[in-house]
Design a protein that fits this description.
Bound molecules: 5-hydroxymethyl-3,4-dihydroxypiperidine
Number of helices: 16
Helix content: 25-40%
CATH architecture: Alpha-Beta Barrel
Largest sheet: 8 strands, parallel
CATH topology: TIM Barrel
CATH class: Alpha Beta
CATH superfamily: Glycosidases
Strand order of the largest sheet: 5-4-3-2-1-11-10-7
Strand content: 5-15%
Number of domains: 1
Shape: globular
Structural class: alpha/beta
Length: 464
Amino acid sequence: MQNEPMSFGDDFLWGAATSSYQIEGGAYEDGKGLSVWDVMCERPDAILDGNSGAVACDHYHRYKEDVALMSQVGLKAYRFSISWPRVLPEGIGRINPKGLEFYDRLVDELMGRNIRPFVTLFHWDYPYALYQKGGWLNGDSSNWFAEYARVVVETLSDRVSDWMTINETQSFIGLGHQRGLHAPGLKLSHKEWLQVSHNVLLAHGKAVQVIRSHAKCPARIGYAPVGVVKVPVTDSPADIEAARATMFAITEKNCENNTWWMDPVFLGKYPEDGLAVFGKDVPQFTDEDMRTISQPLDDFCINIYNGREVRAGADGKAEKWPRPPGYWRTNFGWSVVPQSLYWGPKFFQERYKLPVLITENGMANVDWKSLDGQVHDPQRIDFLQRYLLELQRAVQDGVDVRGYFQWSFMDNFEWADGFTRRFGLTHVDFETQERTLKDSARWYAEVIRTNGRALHEAQGQSIE
Ligand code: IFM
């Protein structure tokens, strides 16, 4: 008799994620202030299809229906973010009670359906009023974030115990402050965006201090950077070492690395190679700054979508594996590398030694409603199945993975790509706001119901 494959822990958190600007809409309602994304979307040519998140999925008004769908899928956890300018229209100072009430109701609705809320404080919709004061370049920006964190924590922490400070530092700084593609659309010099990165890391640390000191129930806190994952082409020790070494190296003057964003937070210091590569552009910092940034965290939260295959070259040095023509990619052009959910968690846990939560993973697909009224998305099912089997392999090999949040619970506003990229388990008709659970949502429901055992079946057949 075959042994049953080892399953995820009984308390494994099967979840899905969204973010405020991408789904809420209600951009000009109930006293919300402007965010940098509201303003960015006004710029001609900033958004691929010319749309904005002003209405998005209208979740601000339809959250009950959405939470009911989450319950139908059987989600155990739901990760969402708070819109800073909805809560503090000018970013600091005056509180908007109606904004806070929305999140209050959302949390109650989730808890009423036994779905554990995971709150992200910042997923990119920065208050425009603060941007006008210099935004993340301003020396006070970390204190502004701490003030905002305190307002949210005081309101929600009697029920919420899971917090993430900031989502994908690399993306909103790289795309928004270095390359000008995302809000606020800046193309800063290396010196300036590195100053932004330091201020953001300080903001993270100060928010952790605020959560620890103000939370009404015991808090678990994380921070959700992008995982820039390297996977070895074979299981040879040389290829594995090549992947590990490149995953934790900084060789280029850009945001696309792990350690500049993680070592300060988890190890209390900037990486030596990064200090050398960025050289004179590195901002001035003190020991006190590093102590603030490296507040102890409970979970290693990480967003992983893909990876890059690496091998040990003939001279022993790591090199990229040349991909064959026609390598598989999603509708966003992102490569499909399921092993990233094995090697990513494994390498990160080796280095940072915390339980792992996969806080985003998923794919953009070409999904529409078929004549039968259903949304058939076999590619997404295949993608998720392959990735989750790799995650399970990591668990089997002893990596302490506690949860997985699919991105995204529903189709939404994909930033500069507007509504052209559908990442959801739930199809949203953006004209009528009709929601339809996709085939992948039903499949995921079965994975959740069986705590992962359904991953081992393909079209009714065992794939063991
Ligand atoms: O939609 C984004 C999300 O806001 C951050 N992580 C990647 C997703 C897909 O691009």
